[in-house]
Amino acid sequence: MASNHAETSAANAPSSRPRREVDVAPSVESSGLPIISSSLTGDNFLVWSRAIKFALGARKKLSFIDGRAIRPNDNSDELNEWIRVDYMVITWILNSISKEIVDAFIYVSSARSLWLELEARYGGSNGPMIYSLEREVSLISQGEMSVTTHFTKTKML
């Protein structure tokens, strides 16, 4: 009876192995499922990138696009696991890019290089967006909208 209790305690004790950033719960993290509801079309990069960052952060994978997840050495035991998770992050991002533009990014070598390429292409110039927002703000009026609807519409800009 005492040995049975010891076995149960050992089975329920927390693992002495620390969890790494690349640990994955397979049932939750299938690379084939979209992780956000919107697709990158090019002109929505700022909103899309924020949604992707939230989704990756919630899955403990943000470090794969921001440069903190360093690829292990080629002779490291962790290399294959790191590559697998990096491919999963690439797949999540590619699955959230519209079909019209995704082919331009299919040959990337890592999630980090994909992110840098997306930022360079779509995240750089805010000039046209600023002009568009200023124009929309100048045209918006409450009219017959409720205060809540008007506030929400203004806030979305």
Automatic annotation (TrEMBL):
Residues 1-23 are annotated as: Disordered. PANTHER family: CCHC-TYPE DOMAIN-CONTAINING PROTEIN (PTHR37610), OS01G0909600 PROTEIN (PTHR37610:SF40). It comes from Sesamum alatum. This is Retrotransposon Copia-like N-terminal domain-containing protein. InterPro entries: Copia-like_N. It holds the Pfam family Retrotran_gag_3. Signal peptide: none annotated. The lineage of its organism: Eukaryota, Viridiplantae, Streptophyta, Embryophyta, Tracheophyta. Residues 29-72 form the Retrotransposon Copia-like N-terminal domain.
